[in-house]
Specification:
- By secondary structure, this protein is an all-alpha fold.
- The protein has a single domain (8-99), classed as Endonuclease III, domain 1.
- The chain is 59% helix and 0% strand.
- It has 4 helices and no strands.
- The protein has helices at residues 8-19, 35-44, 51-65, 77-99.
- Helix 2 (35-44) packs across helix 3 (51-65).
- The chain is globular and about 45 Å long.
- The two termini are 23 Å apart.
């Protein structure tokens, strides 16, 4: 998923909002509601090596910011989808950085 004219954190935030692990959409909240979580995930991206570890990172960030009881369970498909989309963006960002070297 390539999102032009946006920063990486905005793109990650949009992915989180689209999959909405807190079910905030039903409350008509602003689209940038997941900005802090996006930044937290990005801070730890360098430590993940694959989609599976990224899925756990996403889940753990949500547990930290909210609680295990208030978010979708770890088995929910949303975390896998979020991880796959962020991973693709991350790999694109790495590839672009390598091209500019």
């Amino acid at each position: 998923m390539k999102i032009p004219k946006e920063t990486f954190s905005e793109a990650v935030s949009e992915i989180l909002f689209h999959h909405d692990p807190l079910s905030l959409v039903k409350f008509n909240v602003a689209g940038d509601e997941y900005k802090d979580e996006a930044v937290a995930i990005i801070l730890y991206l360098q430590y993940v090596s694959d989609v599976r570890s990224l899925k756990w990172l996403v889940y753990e960030v949500f547990v930290k910011y909210f609680s295990q009881k208030s978010i979708a369970p770890v088995e929910d498909e949303c975390y896998q989808c979020i991880a796959e989309e962020i991973w693709d963006l991350w790999q694109d960002k790495i590839a672009l950085a390598k091209q500019s070297i």
